[in-house]
Amino acid sequence: MSTVRFIQRFGDKITGVLSGYDRLVLRGSLLAIVFPEGMKRVLRLKKVLLKDFGQWAQRMTDQLKKASCQAAWDQKRPIVYLQSASADKEELARKIAARDGITAGLIAILTCLEPCKSFEIHRNSQTHKLELVSRMRKGLVLYHYWIDPQFGWMNARIQSWLPFSIQVCINGREWLAETLDKNGIGYRRHDNCFTSINDVAKAQRLMNRQLRISWPKVLERIQRQLNPLHGGMFRGLGVSYYWSIYQSEWATDTMFEKAADLAAIYPAMVLHGMRTFSSEDVLRFLGRRVPLHGNFKGEVTSDFKDRTEGVRIKHRVKENSIKAYDKGGNVLRVETTMNNPSDFKVLRKKHGQSKGKPKWRPLRRGVADVRRRAQVSQASNERYLDALAATNTSTPLGELVQDICSPTRYRNKRMRALRPWADPDLALLRTINRGEFAINGFRNRDLRSLLFADAPRDDEENRRRSAQVSRLFRMLRAHHLIQKVPRTHRYVVTARGREIISAVLASQQITLEQLNKLAA
What we know:
Blueprint: H1 4-10, E1 14-29, H2 31-34, H3 36-46, H4 53-75, E2 79-81, H5 89-100, E3 105-123, E4 130-148, E5 152-159, E6 166-171, H6 172-182, E7 187-190, E8 193-197, H7 200-207, H8 215-226, H9 230-233, E9 242-256, H10 259-276, H11 279-285, E10 300-307, E11 310-317, E12 320-327, E13 331-338, E14 345-348, E15 359-362, H12 370-391, H13 397-401, E16 408-410, E17 413-415, H14 425-432, H15 437-440, H16 444-451, H17 459-478, E18 482-484, E19 491-493, H18 495-507, H19 512-519
Parallel strand pairs: 2-3
Antiparallel strand pairs: 1-6, 1-9, 3-4, 4-5, 5-6, 7-8, 9-13, 10-11, 11-12, 12-13, 14-15, 16-17, 18-19
């Protein structure tokens, strides 16, 4: 995991950087019976008539509840019914664990009524026949809280009404704490954040194991804990759980040696983030395509929140977000939250096809793409940290851009100076800084479609434009703003280029009034 630019800027004050999943919310669905047609197929195989569905489903529910609670009865752990679904279940479970001194195994089962999607029999007034329909209703949900030998503190819930949906919540830092304890590595911790670790490099290697887990196997173990009778209930029917990631939070924690070191720079970072990060910047952080002609179907927002424990700045692009906040006094956390993975891409073959060439396709919710989800989120965090480092630089802007404002040489040829605050050079810098180029880079044809407003009239004009963009590439390479991706025709912005471009674009947002206040 790399946060090179930020560490270069503040490395003498940093004791370590740790990246990994903070929170994972996974869902298990019995796809074969999620919809009425699938449920009716099971009823036919079980020889259950629609008129008897209610009694049959109630028996299934009773069996599940009894089997799910059996471990609590055996271990004499409490089963608590909550009058309100909005009660803080996490807090209650932690109080029970502290009261009973639980350090491993089941803590409690909390139950409550919650809205859930289930089935009911409906009489069609036109056909005068019974129909099985899917409806939202209130059903009993069982929350299991326990300290897992692999994941540490965690919880999972199962819906006691068909189709028995499951949700599993895992905290990556709890997971790491369990692993550090097993490996004898000392640490200090504040809430779900490590303020110091004796061996950060080894801790990162241990955390990377999260990406190598066989998730279907692990989640099947959890499913058996929630409903030990599942195999018997659906034996021979091909009804198994499909596991997906409902929400993921990937956090990069930068640990400062002293809380005062972070306190000295963080307010300025928050100020710069709110004042100078534009919607295009936020799209770039999250690897999204910067829209042309206002055709983006969504909303980009930024806000900050002054909490008791510190200030949080957050940027949202529709359902996904990136935020920064200080934790434990000396930790700067940058966190990418992904709720809609289809906004991102993964190089894979078409689903269900073992042959054919891999193509860039939308990232899926399924656990099969958990590694790519981590890569995308880490790249997002790094871009955000780079931007924070660039906007907080103490190097005078004139000194920062001095080299690119002077002619230089490239392969024994003179290259002109850039004029970064005037078009067409400003437009060029904005273009190569676009969100969709942050991960995969850009090609000649990518820039041609963006730098020229109209389509070429003929092949000759298209060749002239291609040659013109090639000359721009040489100029940018000469000033060390971009570099070629080996064995491809793609280019990416260099770390130095990102710093300079971020500073130039940020300067476009600063008013004379703000400059006068800074100079006062």
